[in-house]
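Input (structure):
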């Protein structure tokens, strides 16, 4: 089956931990999607043609709408495909807070163990790329020195999961999987792919091991493949479905048509410039043009991103 403007096109690579979070969500929702594999390091000319400069993975594309960061990707998936939900039981907002923890504090502990242990991927080209991404030295020797302390942090956070699972529940919120599970799981997957020493820590927690298997058994939905060239052709032929809408609660007075710049507040702070289409407490969408893809609307979350007038 060929992809269309209604298809989920997922710009990713298989060893990307943040992509794994979304792939688990595809599995929870039993979705069909197209994997569009992007390079691990720059240059990524096809990706930045879509995003306007944002280079981090993953990015989701549906027609001429481009979603940057897992937070806005998962919000859009929940909006378009509400059942099964990513927020089972009484969870309506806690999953987002859990994701902020797993994306920052938990991920930093996992990454320090992985790279401090000499991850094979970390060659000179990778290190140079990540230094450009973060704006600071990618200090492998420092990570090696810090690895024992970060192992303690990783173990402590696994202990929180173990306590949550102590009553025998299958998933973190209860009997059904959701955003909290996808968010915590990808850090364990990343460690399993790359760090035998990290795996030894995971395997000291029996409740976590049982839960981890339940999440892994969900799978990734129905995956197909698409080339970057095909994905960009779909964007160029499509029209965004995002409607212009003012936000009366917008704290800084932004309104549709304003020229704005959006960038991440942590790392990968590549600015993306465009005209505001819509915004809310949880999202901002901007319209931009690129010769390769024509007019596209690029979507970002508000938490974790900065918005400034251009």
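Output (sequence):
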């Amino acid at each position: 089956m060929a992809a269309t403007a209604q298809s989920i096109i997922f710009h990713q690579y298989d060893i990307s931990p943040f992509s794994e979070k979304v792939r688990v969500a595809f599995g929870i929702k039993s979705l069909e999607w197209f994997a569009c594999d992007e390079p691990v390091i720059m240059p990524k000319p096809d990706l930045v043609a879509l995003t306007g400069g944002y280079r981090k993975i993953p990015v989701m594309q549906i027609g001429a709408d481009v979603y940057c960061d897992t937070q806005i990707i998962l919000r859009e998936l929940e909006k378009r495909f509400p059942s099964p939900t990513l927020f089972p039981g009484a969870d309506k907002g806690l999953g987002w807070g859990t994701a902020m923890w797993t994306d920052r504090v938990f991920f930093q502990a996992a990454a320090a163990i992985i790279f401090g242990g000499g991850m094979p991927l970390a060659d000179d080209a990778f290190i140079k790329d990540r230094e450009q991404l973060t704006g600071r030295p990618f200090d492998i020797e420092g990570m090696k020195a810090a690895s024992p302390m970060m192992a303690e942090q990783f173990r402590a956070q696994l202990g929180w999961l173990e306590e949550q699972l102590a009553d025998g529940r299958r998933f973190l919120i209860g009997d059904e999987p959701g955003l909290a599970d996808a968010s915590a799981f990808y850090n364990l997957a990343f460690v399993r792919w790359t760090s035998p020493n990290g795996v030894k820590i995971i395997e000291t927690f029996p409740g976590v091991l049982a839960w981890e298997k339940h999440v892994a058994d969900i799978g990734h939905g129905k995956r197909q493949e698409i080339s970057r060239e095909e994905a960009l052709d779909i964007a160029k032929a499509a029209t965004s479905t995002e409607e212009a809408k003012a936000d009366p609660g917008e704290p800084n007075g932004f309104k549709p048509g304003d020229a704005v710049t959006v960038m991440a507040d942590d790392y990968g702070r590549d600015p993306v410039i465009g005209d505001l289409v819509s915004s809310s407490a949880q999202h901002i969408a901007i319209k931009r043009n690129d010769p390769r893809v024509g007019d596209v609307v690029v979507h970002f979350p508000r938490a974790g991103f900065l918005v400034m007038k251009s």
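Notes: The chain has ten helices and ten strands. The beta strands are 9-12, 32-37, 59-62, 65-68, 222-225, 259-264, 272-279, 283-290, 294-301, 305-309.
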